[in-house]
């Protein structure tokens, strides 16, 4: 059983920064993709950023166009923590942010989400 716990959300002004963390525990093995999603009221859950393992140690990052250059996804592979560094935040970034892990396309778990609110 995989458990994911997000933290780091909060209220910031436009232009500010936040660093989200997702602590993964439990039966986390052979993970091929770590991702951050977000969901704003009235919208579908959106994939924001991923780090995809292509082998034992190789990985690639990907971002949705709206956050590219502002957000950075990373992982502490010792402690199984996934981070999302968010800079130059905009009001449209306001959403509940969720982390997710997959094994060859199969979701292993979801977190409870952390609220990010960006004021103008």
Overview of this structure, please?
The chain is mainly β and 120 residues long. Helix content is 0%, strand content 59%. It has no helices and 11 strands. The chain has strands spanning 2-7, 10-13, 18-26, 33-39, 46-53, 59-63, 71-76, 81-86, 95-103, 106-110, 114-119. Strands 2, 4, 5, 6, 9, 10 and 11 form a 7-stranded mixed β-sheet that branches. Strands 1-3-8-7 form a 4-stranded antiparallel β-sheet, with no helix packed on it. A hairpin with a 2-residue loop joins strand 9 (95-103) and strand 10 (106-110). The radius of gyration is 14 Å and the shape is globular. The termini are far apart. The mean pLDDT is 94.
Number of strands: 11
- Helix and strand content put the structural class at mainly beta
- By oligomeric state, this entry counts as single chain
Report how far the terminal alpha carbons are from each other. Answer: 40 Å
Shape: globular
Hey, roughly how much beta strand do the residues contain?
A: over 45%
Overall pLDDT: 94
Q: Report the C-alpha radius of gyration, rounded.
A: 14 Å
Largest sheet data: 7 strands, mixed
User: Number of helical segments?
Assistant: 0
Give the ordered list of helices and strands: EEEEEEEEEEE
Low-confidence stretches: none
In helices, the fraction of residues equals: under 10%
């Amino acid at each position: 059983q995989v458990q994911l716990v997000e933290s780091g959300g909060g209220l910031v002004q436009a232009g500010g920064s936040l660093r989200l963390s997702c602590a993964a525990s439990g039966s986390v093995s052979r993970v091929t993709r770590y991702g951050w999603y977000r969901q704003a009221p009235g919208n579908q859950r959106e994939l924001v950023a991923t780090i995809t393992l292509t082998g034992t140690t190789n990985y690639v990052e990907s971002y949705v166009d709206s956050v590219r250059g502002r957000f950075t996804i990373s992982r502490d592979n010792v402690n199984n923590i996934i981070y999302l560094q968010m800079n130059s935040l905009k009001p449209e970034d306001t959403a509940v942010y969720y982390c997710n892990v997959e094994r060859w396309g199969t979701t292993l778990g979801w977190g409870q989400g952390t609220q990010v609110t960006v004021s103008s």
